[in-house]
Specification:
The complex is a heterotrimer of chains A (327), B (312) and C (321). Chain A is 72% helix and 1% strand. Chain A has 327 residues and is an all-alpha fold. Chain B has 312 residues and is mainly α. Chain B is built from 13 helices and no strands. The chains are: A mainly alpha (327), B mainly alpha (312), C alpha/beta (321).
Chain lengths: 327, 312, 321
């Protein structure tokens, strides 16, 4: 952290000049815009959502009835869709992402680590609409024609698990959305996990290797346990990103406000895709309030997830950016 | 401090692990080679799995890029870049308004977001200490994690509904700016922290006031990193679709007036992708290709600028 | 000028505004966000005029910020049952009851006896039906559900009719193009779209049995017949419904589509431009309807539209002489 407090004693005037005061005010004002912005967002959303909050109370979160005609609004199906697709994406991207990070941090030869890391980061640069387009046109037909029938025929008959794989395989469902989300959050999980792994002190590794442990054993028993909290944070950060993803999801998830069904082959909605589909045309006051309330719920959930994730990551890596810690 | 406690815990934990492992590892090592073989096999398996995962991730990236390129190339012709869209069902026309619109809104977003982001970064790196700074830092991360659709709802409620009265490009620019600010702030802040203190002290020692020191000494030194941050944020904002659906809406005519709805590439892709017209579907891929090229070159630019950063 | 709304007449409007720009240099930016979006846009005055296939309800009119709104009918069209069944090339026959059954989820397979009764060739098709509906607020949905509520008491009590309803089953597609796209992409699916979308994308569409008991193939003439039959009972504000019309040749799922405009405007030049555009649309513009498979607005209705357009005023003063 720049140490200006001691240095400012060196100014000849012995105090701060007028230019300094002005500059100070300007920068502080800019920084103050940030909390103002967040407060404004929360307040504006709350004000617009208030009629719905008042009218539906906690039933909004529990009921699956989304009926603009009868003015019954319950977002439970949307919440379920969001949770299911997010969990699915983490189940896929979590292990693979951490594995990629382990590869880059521990296994890859120096000349390979950078390019691979860069390529995986490129995945994060691809705009979500392009994931949506690719998922809609390339992945979904493949899922419908090959993957989903395969899953249905093999796992569909297993006693309890089979319920996850029942129903018509259309290719517009939670499963496809989950897979697309997994690809999208993979770079986040990998990048943060890689930082975490780098923060693990080498003494851990060296000690294990000196005792004759194999590389995998070192990782498994010395590095990963140390990094456990941070990696959990990385995964949760990925989860938070998955929660808010709109465009890629809405193109492949089916957009149908169905009841909550266990099958992964069900078309559905997530909170974010519901907002995107219904915001511009919520023509009744209460309908509009209900949609804004969805946005509010999404805001809160994403906010909480982010906070938890950051705290976990900080506990291993330190709060003030990645550059300040030298492991 | 938290960090050293965790380190101490980890360290002692590591020692305990090492001790127990030593007893279990050392003896088989001297006993039979079968046990060692099994551990080596597991190790080899683990290496294979890790490598496979990384390869799979890279493969997916390649697949996406290949499909976009193959499907998008047929759409690219002169008309695509210069003409406006034709009515449904008629073949031909282009996405020129969308390209212009994206560029225009990104400029607006940068004009708002970059100064705000940099000023905040300067505050956090050079001035901030104490609870307010920690709060701001924390909130920056929070805003970075906000779903972009929520930002779209907010900007609609504020700019589209109150300030202007109808869908407009300015609101789109503002929404993109809000997305850009956390990225700019974070990257610039990190870069500024890397500038060595002696530089600042020397400048102050010469009698240059603090604000001039920041503007004329610190910032220029950090220039490469700052460019990285700015370009990265523009690349990220350029790909956003959801907030634009609610703010700038879209336009099939050329439009430069910010107070009117403006077209944008991601929105155009979204509309074309869902349509049943083959001509439009090909155009969707073409627009996707342009978008990827645009963002890809911006990302590579930022990377090149990053590699010129001093002290790297 | 900025307008937004229904996808049902979008091919027509886009052609109109393209031509209008060539003739008058006035650019009308029309964005297809669904009838619901058009209604909300005009309510909030975020657009200059709206487009909807669903007439605004009294409640919606009450929520409009700028006062009274006129419904100017611009075209009439057919909502067709479009489907994608690889094995079947013949035109399928639907009744109100079977359509309601399919979209309620009661009829879930293509070889259901109720469907096979009218379509013997479906007996071989042992596949689940994938229904596709609109995920956005849609006048097409309104017309479709209006029809179903009229012919099926079951539908009326369970789902009802509106621009956005609680669909028991099926996938959602965004806009008429979205539904057509989904039907195109998913085998064994069925959806409801405007005629031109089925034609333009070479999708199969079926015949529907009308009130007189005849199997009607959706077409311009059948829509015009439906309009003529229903013309007897047109309300003064032109918020009519022509579903399930009487007459031997009437297509039962026909609907009109309207342009929504405020009676009281505030900006003189803009109000004049809007009035002129509406006049053009209801007169010269109608010559484009036929080629795009939309029926022309009957003269009886045009007369009433003219009266409304003449009443568009700024500060009480009509803009068109």
């Amino acid at each position: 952290m720049a140490s200006f407090s001691s240095a400012s004693r060196l100014t000849p005037s012995g105090g701060t000049s007028r230019g300094d005061r002005v500059f100070n005010v300007v920068v502080t004002a800019a920084a103050a815009c940030i909390p103002l912005l967040l407060i404004a967002i929360v307040i504006l959303l709350l004000v617009d959502a208030w009629p719905a909050v008042q009218r539906y109370g906690t039933g909004f979160l529990a009921s699956t009835d989304w009926d603009p005609v009868a003015e019954k609004f319950g977002a439970a199906a949307y919440i379920y869709g969001t949770v299911i697709t997010a969990i699915l994406s983490v189940l896929i991207a979590g292990p693979i992402g951490v594995a990629c990070a382990v590869y880059i941090a521990e296994y890859a030869p120096r000349w390979l680590a950078e390019p691979v890391s860069f390529l995986i980061t490129l995945l994060a640069a691809i705009p979500s609409i392009i994931y949506g387009l690719w998922g809609f046109r390339i992945l979904a037909p493949v899922m419908r024609a090959a993957v989903e029938p395969f899953l249905k025929n093999t796992l569909g008959n297993v006693p309890i698990l089979g319920a996850l794989f029942s129903g018509p395989t259309v290719g517009r469902d939670y499963l496809v959305a989950g897979v697309i989300l997994a690809i999208m959050i993979l770079p986040t999980v990998t990048a943060v996990s890689r930082e975490i792994l780098r923060a693990v002190p080498n003494t851990q590794r060296e000690g294990m290797l000196a005792l004759g442990a194999t590389r995998w054993e070192t990782i498994q028993r010395a590095v990963l346990p140390y990094a456990r909290g941070g990696i959990a944070g990385a995964v949760i950060l990925g989860l938070a990103r998955a929660l808010g993803e709109t465009m890629a999801v809405t193109l492949v998830i089916g957009n149908s406000s169905n009841q909550i069904r266990p099958s992964l082959f069900t078309p559905g909605y997530t909170l974010a895709s519901a907002i995107a589909n219904q915001f511009t045309e919520a023509d009744k006051e209460i309908y509009f309030s209900a949609v804004v309330e969805i946005a509010l719920v999404l805001l809160l959930v994403a906010g909480v997830m982010n906070v938890v994730a950051r705290l976990l990551v900080w506990s291993v890596r330190g709060p003030l950016g990645s550059a300040t810690r030298a492991g | 401090m938290e960090r050293s406690r965790a380190a101490r815990l980890g360290h002692s934990g590591g020692l305990i692990v090492m001790a127990t492992l030593a007893s279990s590892v050392a003896s088989p090592l001297t006993r039979t080679s079968g046990r060692v073989r099994r551990r080596e096999v597991i190790d080899g398996l683990a290496t294979a799995v890790m490598t496979l995962c990384a390869a799979a991730a890279v493969l997916v990236l390649v697949l996406i890029l290949i499909f976009v390129t193959i499907n998008g190339l047929p759409a690219l012709n002169l008309a695509f870049f210069t003409e406006r869209p034709l009515p449904q069902g008629e073949a031909g026309g282009g996405v020129a308004p969308a390209i212009l619109g994206t560029v225009e809104m990104l400029v607006v977003a940068a004009l708002i977001g970059v100064p705000l982001g940099m000023a905040t970064a300067i505050y956090l790196a050079e001035y901030g200490r104490g609870r307010f700074a920690t709060l701001v830092s924390f909130l920056i991360d929070l805003i970075a994690g906000l779903p972009s659709i929520v930002i779209g709802v907010f900007v609609w409620a504020w700019m589209v509904r109150h300030v202007v009265g109808h869908y407009n490009g300015l609101a789109g620019g503002v929404a993109l700016a809000i997305i850009m600010i956390p990225i700019v702030t974070r990257t610039v802040e990190e870069t500024l922290r890397l500038v060595p203190d002696p530089l600042r002290e020397a400048s102050l020692g010469l009698g240059i006031p603090r604000w001039k020191t920041i503007l004329k000494v610190v910032l220029p030194t950090a220039r490469a990193g700052i460019i990285t941050g700015v370009v990265l944020s523009i690349a990220r904002a350029g790909g956003e679709t959801a907030p634009l659906l609610l703010t700038s809406l879209g336009n099939q005519f050329f439009q430069v007036d910010l107070l009117q709805p403006i077209a944008a590439l991601p929105v155009q892709i979204y509309n074309y992708a869902r349509s049943p017209y083959e001509d439009w579907q090909i155009k969707a891929w073409g627009a996707a290709l342009i978008l990827i090229l645009l963002i890809g070159s911006l990302s590579l630019l930022s990377r090149w600028a990053a590699n010129r950063r001093p002290g790297r | 000028m900025n307008a937004a709304g229904a996808t049902f007449p979008a091919p027509l409007y886009q052609k109109w505004f393209d031509e209008y720009a060539k003739i008058t240099q006035v650019q009308v930016n029309y964005q297809t966000i669904g009838s619901g979006g058009g209604i909300k846009g005009i309510q909030d005055q975020t657009i200059d005029f709206g487009a909807s296939d669903a007439p605004m309800t009294d409640e919606q009119l009450g929520a409009a910020k700028g006062g009274p709104i006129y419904h100017i009918p611009s075209a009439l069209g057919a909502i067709v049952m479009t489907y994608n069944i690889p094995e079947v090339n013949a035109k399928l026959k639907f009744t109100g009851a079977t359509i309601a059954g399919i979209f309620l989820g009661d009829i879930s397979k293509w070889n259901d006896p109720k469907l096979v009764a009218d379509n013997p060739e479906l007996a071989q098709v042992n596949q689940d039906i994938v229904t596709v509906h609109r995920s956005d607020g849609s006048g097409t949905t309104f017309g479709f559900t209006d029809y179903l509520s009229t012919v099926s008491p079951d539908w009326k009590s369970k789902v009802g009719s509106a621009t956005s309803v609680n669909w028991p089953v099926g996938l959602g597609g965004s806009g008429n193009p979205g539904v057509a796209g989904e039907v195109q992409q998913n085998p064994y699916s069925v959806g409801y779209v405007e005629l031109i979308y089925a034609l333009g994308n070479k999708l199969s569409y079926g015949m529907v049995k009308n009130k007189a008991g005849q199997w009607i193939d959706p077409s311009l003439d059948s829509v015009t017949a439906a309009a003529a039959a229903a013309l007897q009972n047109i309300p003064a504000d032109l918020r009519f419904s022509i579903v399930d019309a009487t007459g031997d040749t009437s297509y039962p799922i026909s609907t009109g589509t309207w342009l929504l405009v405020y009676k009281n405007q505030t900006d003189q030049p803009k109000a004049l431009a809007i009035a002129r555009l509406l006049w053009w649309a209801t007169h010269d513009g109608q010559k484009y309807n036929k080629d795009l498979q939309y029926a022309v607005v009957p003269d009886g209705l045009t007369v009433k539209s003219e009266q409304f357009i003449h009443q568009i005023a700024v500060n009480g003063k009509p803009v068109l002489p």
